[in-house]
User: Fold Signal recognition particle subunit SRP72 from Xiphorhynchus elegans.
Amino acid sequence: AAAAAAGPAAAAGLWSEVNRCGQNGDFARALKSVNKILQINKDDVTALQCKVVCLIQNGNFKEALSIINTHTKVLTSDIIAFEKAYCEYRLNRIESALKTIQSASQQTDKLKELYGQVLYRLERYDDCLAAYRDLIRNSQDEYEEERKTNLSAVVAAQSTWEKVVPEDLGLREATYELCYNSACALIGQGKLNEAMKKLQKAEELCRQSLSEDSDVTEEDIEAELAIIHGQMAYIMQLQGRTEDALQLYNQIIKLKPTDVGLLAVIANNIITINKDQNVFDSKKKVKLTNAEGVEHKLSKKQLQAIEFNKALLAMYTNQADQCRKLSASLQSQSPEHLLPVLIQAAQLCREKQHAKAVGLLQDFADQHPANAAEIKLTMAQLKIAQGSVTKACMILRSIEELQHKPGMVSALVTMYSHEEDIDSAIEVFTQAIQWYQQFQASQTRGGNPKSPVHLSLIREAANFKLKHGRKKEAISDLEELWKQNPKDVHTLAQLISAYSLVDPEKAKVLSKHLPSSDTMSLKVDVDALENSHGATYVRKKAGKLTGDNQQKEQGQGEVKKKKKKKKGKLPKNYDPKVTPDPERWLPMRERSYYRGRKKGKKKEQVGKGTQGSTTAGSSELDASRTASSPPTSPRPGSAAAVSATSNVIPPRHQKPAGAAATKKKQQQKKKKGSKGGW
Assistant:
């Protein structure tokens, strides 16, 4: 009896301990007391509830959910529905959390808040928007600002992923979270400049709000601003400022933020900037997209874009098998999506299997007619790359929804003209004009006015036919154009030219509609036109000179004849009485009176030939010493035979004729290559 009495007393003390620890936020200590209570009574509902709450506060969601599931008889859904749904939500079992919330008998405010979060994670934005509106309308507490922030996040997601034009919620953007969400909504609408201003305002508000807390460091502020800076960099990337975007992306990565979702998005965007360049950096960045928990932080479209880029990176790095594996997996997940099959076709083209790539695209176009247009455009591009222009034209003409478009008509006509298939080009024009005629007839009644695009096509068709000598075929088009605008003189002139070959009488009748020469004459100042800057290079026609002009020209000729060259400068010691030296233009050694420099006897004996040759008889070979030697070069046929007994240097010992010049060139090269100098 004493032991039995001690139980309730001990339990009361433990409950007071649990209460005190809960108020202090010490849930680990509270959990120990709760466990002691459960040892006394294992089916105590309140103790089990407290244990679940303590485990949730400590982050042990798996254990908390396990206790809920093992005590279903005691912990019914009415009692523990919120805690169970919250544990499932935190464990990323979103579908299970939704079922738990919907099965609860009473929808409390806490369950409604969680319901909104679950719908957002499931990307059911319309239902989520309605849930938050209901919460804001029917609740009044200190969490109203957080609910408005969540509401603006839903609107931003709709604008970004579903391309829905967001409605004005009338929210006062007093916090940086609201400014950031508003900027995201503007990005979804393509209003990039306005979005950048909102992000700058969000950055300013964030710094202000965080700097008020003395415990927050500059590093903490930069970490909080990372997501705002990441969105700024994304706007820069969309605007084509890739260098600025890349610099800001790398700054964020250096901060090492804890948000794996943010890091994955930034890494993916850097990979898209690198494309097929800087592949090594892309391979490093792709590791950040594989971090644990990324799939729970990003939307389905974000994850899909990352997977697409992984497949493209595998293609750029020549990992053919990996590329095929990733693209096949993506195609199985999204059979109607274009990118997986386009990546597979691109990989086949890199392997020079163009026919196989075209077949793959054709199969996809047959299976998914809604996306056939884009696929067929790619097929046509591959055919053009192979040189099969005619087959490419056939593929393009099979795209019914694009046949009448001016761009398609222009492309087909250009391609047919390149292949010199004028008949097919004219047929393309005819079909497009007929389509517009039928369309105009179905849209209007009575006068059936032509649209600008329709008239433009008729004009291009007429010009094309005239250019290629099909004047007879151009008549109907020109008549239609002139009918729409009778004041168009250019069209009338073309029509008269065309009729001149077919019906000259008709051409004469139409020529009466041409304006008279008086109305077409223009008052032009010929002299001013000839003297203008643009006419300076116009060659004038030569004409006969008469009268004063001819005399003036002759006078100019006489003046030119009288002009004399300037006299050259004479040397200072010039004496006009003395006859100049006739050999003054020759080098000193070649002059007849040159006797050489006076040197010592020993020096005279030093030869100037090759090593080992003798100098004896050098005076005999010196032509300048003989009185009969000519001043310049010897006369033809006057060369005397050299005595066989004379001491002549053999030809192989003599210097070559160009030896001096060669030596001089070598000295110049050596001088150029020398490291010293001024």
